[in-house]
Amino acid sequence: MAAPEADTLVDVLRWRAARQPDRPAYIYLTDGETEEQRLTYGQLDQQARQIAAALQRVAKPGDRVLVPFPSDLAFMAAFLGCLYAGMIAVPAHPPALQRAGRPATRLQWIVQDAGATVALAAPEVIATLDRRIGQTPGLAALHWLDLQQALAEPGPPWQPRPLTPQTIAFLQYTSGSTTDPKGVMIPHSSILANARCLQKVWEQDETTVVVNWMPLQHDGGLIGMALQAIFIGAPCVLLSPTDFLQNPVRWLQAISRFRGHTSAAPNFAYDLCAQKITPAQKAGLDLSSWQVAVNSAEPVRAETLARFDAVYHGHFKCNRSKITEIPVLWGYLRDLFQTPGFGDTVDFVQIKQHYYIVHTDINPTKIVPLGPDLSGLLTPHGREALGGTPFGDGTAPGPVRPDEQPTAGHNPLYPA
Questions:
Q1: Which residues are CB-neighbours of 217 under 8 A, at least 6 positions away?
Q2: What are 49-106's pLDDT values in tens digits?
Q3: Rounded Cα gap, residues 304 and 69, in angstroms
Q4: In angstroms, rounded to a whole number, what is the distance separating the alpha carbons of residues 268 and 295?
Q5: Residues 282, 249: Cα–Cα separation, whole Å
Q6: What local confidence, expressed as pLDDT, does residue 108 receive?
Q7: For 309, which DSSP code?
């Protein structure tokens, strides 16, 4: 079933719920292995409407709603309930997942910066924050709404709000690992434009299965995986970041078991799978369904791609374990490497299996190819590709460090 011509994500989910109410939308795995819960498109729509109705009783359209949930089904229902209510979701990690000594500080910063007036949370999160709420003015001022009560208590029904493509859906905050978290306003139009681009280049449809362990509080897990699944009408299998880190094979087992087509992770995750998974664990894996493996959110290293391919080549039974050789953009490379520290000329380029070696008048430098240009962001020089194929989907802001690639963009390791 094709994706609808919709103006907002709410329109998309309502359309899906009406036409495929019994199809699984999300499947959550306990400890990353055992299936615990499913939400169909019909159930997800129903929960979003119930949550929206509860929010509409305590806040008004356009208000910011803090959503401090782990990466589970409750997060998705709460997040979408904010959108149904015409309010702006503010995803955040719950206190238990914060670094020691910073939970209240980071949440208070986000609340203050976003101007949040309501917090929608699970009862256990509210209980955890009880003491901190009283000690932290920013949290104490919020109206705290219990998710379970919102789903259980009867009340006036949900009132649909007029939404436009320009309506802000949510505020995306950075992790705050190196400085205070920074927020970005994400309108519905941006979510859907991104979804259409990804659907095209990743060749997705309703038969696709998405598998994700990346945090839903950040754009890779939320926009690229969980919301993308709604757009294409596909099921999304979720496991928590903690469960993956404790035992990386759980990610690959989920792909094998549920026949995952699309999955993403930062570069370090591919390294973990190449180095930490035992031969016995790898023996039962069948990754032949995995058509789009996205390496994102941090610099992409050529050595990691090579290691991962060497270890798992035999598990990709459909022979997807080679990177497609993309013609080199001479103009793009010339712009990129005519910077201090890289020399004045690009002499020639060697095409290797997982990367290019760019020879300048100083030192050879490895560069990992990105996927196709999705949004016309390349420089005019960058469009002068041999064979007309783009090299990447964004201009580099400055010199590339050896063995690294700018994080702007995606890198399908095994593109269809």
A1: 71, 91, 92, 93, 173
A2: 999 999 999 999 999 999 999 999 999 999 999 999 999 999 998 876 444 444 467 7
A3: 32
A4: 9
A5: 8
A6: 84
A7: H
pLDDT score recorded for residue 388: 32
Q: Write the CB contacts of 88 (distance below 8 Å, at least 6 apart in sequence).
A: 62, 63, 64, 65, 82, 114, 168, 169, 170, 171
Tokens encoding 13:
């989910």
Structure tokens at 337: 């490497």
pLDDT tens column, 5-28: 899 999 999 999 999 999 999 999
Q: How many CB atoms lie within 10 A of CB 160?
A: 12
Q: How many CB atoms lie within 10 A of CB 380?
A: 9
Q: Which of 166-170, 372-376, 411-415 has the lowest mean pLDDT?
A: 411-415
User: Dihedral sign, CA of 183, 184, 187, 188?
Assistant: negative
Q: Name the packing angle between helices 41-56 and 9-19 (round to 10°).
A: 130
- Phi first, then psi, for residue 412 (nearest 5°) are -65, 115
| CA–CA separation, 292 and 229 (whole Å) | 14
Contact between 210 and 229 (Cβ < 8 Å)? yes
pLDDT digits (tens, 9 = 90+) for 216-247: 998 889 999 999 999 999 999 999 999 999 99
Gyration radius from the chain CA atoms: 22
Closest CA to 386 of 325, 328, 335: 328
Q: Which residues, in sequence order, are CB contacts of 152 under 8 Å at separation 6+?
A: none
Q: At 108, list the tokens.
A: 């208070």
In whole angstroms, give the CA distance from residue 204 to residue 110: 35
Asked whether the beta carbons of 50 and 151 are under 8 A apart, the reply is yes
* Distance, CA of 341 to CA of 130 (rounded, Å): 54
